[in-house]
Amino acid sequence: MFLQRGSGRGFGCGRDGWAGFGVAGGAGMWALLIRDLRLAVRAGGGFGLGLAFFLLVAVLVPLGVGPEGDVLGRIAPGILWVGALLACLLSLDRIFALDFEDGSLDLLATAPIPLEGVVAVKALAHWLVTGVPLTLAAPVLGVLLNLPAAGYGWLVLSLALGTPALSVIGAFGAALVVGVKRGGLLLSLLVLPLYVPTLIFGAEAVSRGVAGQAAEVPLLLMTGITLGAAALLPFAAAAAIRINLR
Amino acid sequence: MEVRVDTLAVARGGIPVLEGVTFRLQPGRALILRGPNGVGKTTLLRTIAGLQPALEGRVSVPPESMAYAAHADGLKAVLTVEENLRFWAAVHGLRDVEAALVAMDLLSLRDRRAANLSAGQKRRLGLARLLVTGRAVWLLDEPTVSLDVASVALFGAAVRAHLAGGGSALMATHIDLGLAEADVLDLEPFRARGRVAGGRMGAFDEAFQ
Amino acid sequence: MSIWEYANPKKFMASTGWLLPWVWGMAGLCLLVGLIWGYFFTPDDFRQGSTVKIIYLHVPSAMMAINAWVMMLVASLIWLIRRHHVSALAAKAAAPVGLTFTVIALVTGALWGQPMWGTWWAWDPRLTSFLILTLFYLGYIALWQAVENPDTAADLTAVLCLVGSVFALLSRYAVLFWNQGLHQGASLSLDKEENVADVFWFPLLVCIAGFVLLFVALVLMRTRTEIRARRLQALIARERLA
């Protein structure tokens, strides 16, 4: 299948990209980040929608569970983490789908920036417009859910360290379904199982923090997942994009 | 740099469409691909651009020295003309977009959002992108779609300037750009012959022989 | 002769054509012997009564649920590295079989758990892991369904299988961390003292062999179907092109 020049393009190495990578590549990645942030701000919808969704979850859960403060306080870490995770999921399909539709992804794949770098930058942009606002909004919603005082620091810390993993894993999922029309639901089905370890460790860290136990271990394990995902998944995602483009 | 394409075979959706495509493209020359719809012009250009793997054969020039312009221009509707162009310039490690704006007559539109451009203006912006890539070989897929006569002339001039500067262009087009430096390559003879005639097959079918 | 020659679809079809009835026969024999032996000729457990006999379905299907994924991982790697179409199609064929084994393991587990633990479902680490494995299977199958071009689908699902395996493993440890659980430990390791007694163990081994053979037979059959379907598609596409 992958003969001659094709072999370089099929998987992994992306030799074409790295060859031209240098000062120009760094500037190009910076330009891509600025462009994606600018698009998110101007096109609207992106992070505002995620935040609104997060707020809705924090409002609806007490309506469903009942107003007892101690019950809400007990489940608050899990609800906030699940809410943040779902809010993050909402905007995932925009990471690559728009660039795929208007042809930008073709052009980026032939640009001097390595495609792995494109994935990493786009995941970073997604985190900046969803993960960061969610992290900052979480303590406010924690008040609504009667989160005990000991939990706020751990909540912000765990979301700050865990939401990058959500964005990177999400970017991988988005890269898989970029060629699929109306791939939104499929994307959720692919990405949610991959979110399991991050969710477990993240929510566990907050729960332990609330209970006054040592929360460092789950927090560090989750950070390990974040770092590992950020280091390795861009390669898998870039491979998926190359497959989808051909 | 001379582009040498040797016995290239390309497939669309796993089915071979062209085989044995061989040509040379000298610096300063343009090569126009001709052939009926569906013969595989786009597939051939995408393969040469490195976006999809070839079934066999080779291309002498690495994809890093080629700029590909497809049907879709890769424009962002909410960015202005200048922002769109500056982005692609930065991606290719360049800064100056003035020359490109002038060449495609976009100076007066520079602060307008791409959403508010006409189809022809968008196309001009898409072609202006080629000028900020700084790459020697242009691969153009129907570059003149939705351009009016004046814009076609503008584009023809840009291509001519590119060729004069030692660049080259490979394009699939039905319109005569009035390029004296252009050769024509008819793709009809390279049509994949299919199994019955003993031509090459897609990877999966091959295994059944 | 290299083993890779069997990766040629034609060769694969020919060799599995005569192999398949034998595998089916062996699978049927093992399952018949193992299940009848297990259900009717073993004593009741002194604590668990006759409910223990569900292990003859539960344990082998749980094992195969995981083994099927491992097989898919290996097949995906072979496809990515050596580009053998049969390998990709075998991975595709194995997924629904693996999913079925996972569901059987979950259902039989629930049936067993009800009298033992007094509940149909508990968020025990192993149950949870299997539930998560179900989700991985569903995602993998859905991706195969969603992508039109078969080679693209094979590549994408192979990448998903690779990444999914890593995350499935991570999930397993995360779940263990999250809840220590009430599941009895693995009772089949050879060196363990608290092994199940031999009377239960031998019929169980026969059942496991039966399930392995059943899996092989199902995967071979489904792979043959996939190859035929793929061949048909190629012919139709060529017809349309000509």
UniProtKB/TrEMBL annotation, chain B:
<keyword id="KW-0201">Cytochrome c-type biogenesis</keyword>
<dbReference type="InterPro" id="IPR003439">
    <property type="entry name" value="ABC_transporter-like_ATP-bd"/>
</dbReference>
<keyword id="KW-0547">Nucleotide-binding</keyword>
<protein>
    <submittedName>
        <fullName>Heme ABC exporter ATP-binding protein CcmA</fullName>
    </submittedName>
</protein>
<keyword id="KW-0472">Membrane</keyword>
<dbReference type="InterPro" id="IPR017871">
    <property type="entry name" value="ABC_transporter-like_CS"/>
</dbReference>
<dbReference type="GO" id="GO:0005524">
    <property type="term" value="F:ATP binding"/>
</dbReference>
<keyword id="KW-1278">Translocase</keyword>
<keyword id="KW-0813">Transport</keyword>
<dbReference type="InterPro" id="IPR027417">
    <property type="entry name" value="P-loop_NTPase"/>
</dbReference>
<keyword id="KW-0067">ATP-binding</keyword>
<dbReference type="InterPro" id="IPR005895">
    <property type="entry name" value="ABC_transptr_haem_export_CcmA"/>
</dbReference>
<feature type="domain" description="ABC transporter">
    <location>
        <begin position="3"/>
        <end position="209"/>
    </location>
</feature>
<dbReference type="InterPro" id="IPR003593">
    <property type="entry name" value="AAA+_ATPase"/>
</dbReference>
<dbReference type="Pfam" id="PF00005">
    <property type="entry name" value="ABC_tran"/>
</dbReference>
TrEMBL record, chain C:
<feature type="transmembrane region" description="Helical">
    <location>
        <begin position="125"/>
        <end position="144"/>
    </location>
</feature>
<dbReference type="InterPro" id="IPR045062">
    <property type="entry name" value="Cyt_c_biogenesis_CcsA/CcmC"/>
</dbReference>
<dbReference type="Pfam" id="PF01578">
    <property type="entry name" value="Cytochrom_C_asm"/>
</dbReference>
<keyword id="KW-0812">Transmembrane</keyword>
<keyword id="KW-0201">Cytochrome c-type biogenesis</keyword>
<keyword id="KW-0997">Cell inner membrane</keyword>
<comment type="function">
    <text>Required for the export of heme to the periplasm for the biogenesis of c-type cytochromes.</text>
</comment>
<keyword id="KW-1133">Transmembrane helix</keyword>
<feature type="transmembrane region" description="Helical">
    <location>
        <begin position="61"/>
        <end position="81"/>
    </location>
</feature>
<dbReference type="InterPro" id="IPR002541">
    <property type="entry name" value="Cyt_c_assembly"/>
</dbReference>
<feature type="transmembrane region" description="Helical">
    <location>
        <begin position="156"/>
        <end position="179"/>
    </location>
</feature>
<comment type="similarity">
    <text>Belongs to the CcmC/CycZ/HelC family.</text>
</comment>
<feature type="transmembrane region" description="Helical">
    <location>
        <begin position="21"/>
        <end position="41"/>
    </location>
</feature>
<keyword id="KW-1003">Cell membrane</keyword>
<feature type="domain" description="Cytochrome c assembly protein">
    <location>
        <begin position="4"/>
        <end position="183"/>
    </location>
</feature>
<dbReference type="InterPro" id="IPR003557">
    <property type="entry name" value="Cyt_c_biogenesis_CcmC"/>
</dbReference>
<feature type="transmembrane region" description="Helical">
    <location>
        <begin position="93"/>
        <end position="113"/>
    </location>
</feature>
<keyword id="KW-0813">Transport</keyword>
<protein>
    <recommendedName>
        <fullName>Heme exporter protein C</fullName>
    </recommendedName>
</protein>
<feature type="transmembrane region" description="Helical">
    <location>
        <begin position="199"/>
        <end position="221"/>
    </location>
</feature>
<keyword id="KW-0472">Membrane</keyword>
